[in-house]
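note to self — DONT lose this again. spent like an hour looking for the file last time. sequence + predicted structure for the chain T wanted, 127 res
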Amino acid sequence: MKNDLEENSVVEVYFPIEQDVGKEATRLRAITDLFSNIIEEPCFDQLRTKEQLGYTVDSSPRMTYRMLAYCFRVMSSKYSPIYLQSRIDNFIDGLSALLVCLYVLLLPNMSALVCYYIVFYLTGSVC
């Protein structure tokens, strides 16, 4: 619900990944950073440049009390939080197509095994 006393709306979608402990922590941070590097520009391009949702649009990994997570955030003075949430959700729904395209583009330039692991760890499945 939009607050009539505040012209700005902000939505943050927070995906907890896993506690940052143990031997897997470094691997998970690396995968999360790789994921961030892949989607940061497409997220900004879609939500900020093309849809012009707000003046602040970002996506990034986050560490809160040793919990590794990934966040999407949009701040706007034009749109309600419900609308902003729906646009973030729409972008997230399209990520698997983006990752499959990346897989297809990278395949000729690296081993199939590396592409398999990138797509598997980022999407949870392989096409």
